[in-house]
Specification:
single chain, mainly alpha, 10 helices, 2 strands, 2% strand
Length: 251
Amino acid sequence: MYAEFATDAKVQSMTEAMQRRLMMLLCLRCSDVLATLQDDELQFALHIGNDELAETKALFMRKGFVDDAWNLLNWDKRQFNSDSSTERSRKHREAKKATANVIATSRNVAATPPDTDTDTDTDTDKEPNGSVGKADALPRCDTQSVVDLYHEVLPELPAVRLMNDGRRKAIASLWKFVLTCKRSDGTPRATNAAEAMNWIRGYFARARENDFLMGRGSKGAGHESWQCDLDFLLSEKGKKHVIEKTQATPA
């Protein structure tokens, strides 16, 4: 974002809707994803239809904001040396390394061995339902594989077309839940990555059996247009709905 945005005649002569779309393009370019998006994905990101996308592109090309391939024409001239992601990454790594050295030195000086096994309690995280599991050393979570499972098991539900940080964090949260939070009968849901993926497959399969989630039942007033999607299934409310209201075996 640049300060002249508030007074730039080319910008301020547009409707607020068009100004928002321009800001969204700037955000997508800053995230280095703009060049990877097809037109249908760009429609999804901007929350507009095909006709609106064509209208937006025509307007932005006339004003010199973008070219025919949606490249932002004046992007480079507004970037400063300090905005280089490479330089920022280098400085971040150096600062992180320096901090790690300080922590390591401090531990060597002050650390003492635990007197009893009770000291290991600090290595566990308590889950919302009271179960306890290791919070570290979890198998790597492949977020795309989880999304692929969702598409495979639940093709009737809305497809995931844009992977953002919020969805990645939600998938990571489900992954941690599966590997650290025990079932109501005390047995673990999963102890490794393969078992975790198998549990998630079963979780999506259970969602298929829920008439409400699959749109097979009547919906309450004001919720007629609501549709279940990956975001809902990853939420705490969604997990509760699937596990408590659709389970055939302990989930």
